[in-house]
Amino acid sequence: MNEPKIGIQNNRVQFILLVVANLFVGSMVGIERTVLPLLGEEEFGLASTSAALSFIISFGFSKAIINYFAGSIADRYGRKKVLLAGWVIGLFVPVLIIFAHAWWVIVLANVLLGINQGLAWSMTVNMKIDLAKADQRGTAVGLNEFAGYSGVAVLAAVSGYVASTYSLRPEPFYIGIAIGVIGLLLSLIIKDTEGHLKVQMEAAKDEKNEMSAKEVFQKTTWQDRNLSTASFAGMSTNLKDGMAWGLFPLYFTTVGLSVTQIGTIVAVYPAAWGIFQLFTGALSDKLGRRKLITYGMWTQAAALWFILAVGSYPLWMAGAIVLGIGTAMVYPTLQAAISDVAAPGWRASSMGVYRFWRDSGYAFGALLAGVIADFMGVTWAIGLVALMPFIAGLLARFRLEETLKMNNVKQ
User: Fold this and answer.
1) Of 83, 166, 320, 405, whose CB neighbour count within 10 A is largest?
2) Predicted structure pTM score
């Protein structure tokens, strides 16, 4: 039996299937981006902003926790089994939302959505890294995130249009059922990358390929300056996104925009995020990780403050695009930095810890934004949350080393 070859070109069919699969993973989230915050207010009568954002909190914490375990489970049992499990669980999400009679059912559905995303999205990115060469990791992650957030953007716009044409539910969530079925079928076709991982582990046999879950958690969270700085930056990025997910529809409603206009702005932000990752991931393979992470975090903060400072639809659109660009600068780059530092044998576990902290940002962002909005207003909540990516940019500037050079030394 021939040994698997490493490299995107050598595995292009498998790689393309994984890109398409993550398009559908992201689409599951996109359906909710426009509709659920409005559903909470209009259909379930939630007056408290923090209560309305509870679905994001449940999503964020469940995804974060599952991310942590998904990496170690995948290292032990294989990537494909975890990917399939994610899609089986994802099928229940739109069904629960369609038939929800109380808000707690929506919250439960988002716990399942978090599990679906934690298992399925984690595996698509890990499988792409398994297939890619060391100097292609930024490109691999960039393509993965481009596909996922393109799915988020397209379905955010489509669900907004469907909701405004028909109703907030059930029509948008019929699409979710179709997406779940297609995602499951794609996962059955995709081959496992166990053989490619073994090749990489053999090439890195001089490194410490065995590490306990506790050691990986400590190393990624605080012991290693590069891994821990990346983890904080990831959490700050998604803290901002958890706020944007929950508060943008509410903020733009207060300034008089229609559901269709809100859906467009809410879609443009992840669209820019997705599209520009085609370039930023590959750019980090050439220019390095540190600059893109630092300036990307600062760009996000600046974009949020810009959105609050302006007062017209075209300028809000521009701010959403800049916010997406700033996020695109850091999203694939942070994951590439993690894979630069972590050895192949514990890379998925370290990525799981990073993604645990990163996606807990969804929950912390929604929780923090909801509390601030209830006491000080939506505008203050957006402005104060923007401080987090700004601080993360400072830490990256003064604490993060250039991990791409480390990776090149390994080669």
Assistant:
1) 83
2) 0.83
